[in-house]
Amino acid sequence: MTNKMDEIIIVAPREAVFEKEELTFQGILSDTEKVKHITSNLAETYSTMRRGDAEENTSYKQPIPYAAIRRGDSVFAYKRLTGGGEARLHNQISLGVGGHLNDVEGEDFYGVVSDGLQRELEEELYINKDKLELTTIGLINDDLNPVGEVHLGMLVIGDLPEDEEVSVRETDQLEGEWIKISDLKNPDIYNSLESWSQFVADILN
User: Which residue ranges form the domains of the chain, and what is each CATH number?
Assistant: First the structure.
């Protein structure tokens, strides 16, 4: 079995992405022009790096598609069990499906992001993608913790009809459930959310 830290992933230099911190933000950025500007910077300056090196290098941001699945008044959540990959996130609840991007020959950055998101949905969930309506919301940045400092989220909301079911594939690593959006601010739930998911909870309420 290959070591996931040897995976070659897409990264972009922080200095170029945020234009020497002129465009840096904390939380969710939904300002359309600024989102386009940062995304354009990603598209123009991205390269590849070994994941293990990227995770330790705060000079680079790893773009991560992050899709929250909503069905009526509920959002799909999953808990990363101790058998899961990222030790820093064990037992935290996530409202987003996403992962690192791999370069795709013949695709530009936007195609790579689209391919990466579709792949993550297929790998992590049993879900009817034909019924999933995806809406791009903006970007997520959290420089206040070691995981967030090296990642940049690309937030998408995926809406499903109320009769559609969703479940996790990797039951040894993840445990999935629907949570009512109105319950997300319950301190027991909110304090268990990953930082990115807290940002998502804030905008869904």
Answer: 4-204 (3.90.79.10)
pLDDT beneath 50, residues of the chain: none
> How far apart are alpha carbons 170 and 155 in whole angstroms?
22
What's the pLDDT tens digit per position in 80-96?
776 555 555 557 899 99
Given a contact cutoff of 8 angstroms between Cβ atoms, the answer to whether 189 and 197 are in contact is no
What span, in angstroms and rounded, lies between the C-alpha atoms of 60 and 65?
Answer: 16
CB-CB contact of 61 with 12 (8 Å): yes
Instruction: State the Cα–Cα distance between residues 117 and 13, nearest whole angstrom.
Output: 22
Asked if 96 and 174 count as a contact pair (C-beta separation under 8 A), the reply is: no
Query: What does the block give as tokens for 200?
Result: 């998502």
**Tokens for 165?**
């079911």
Contacts of 161 (CB under 8 A, 6+ apart): 71, 131
pTM equals: 0.93
CA distance 101 to 151: 11
Give the three-class secondary structure for 54.
helix
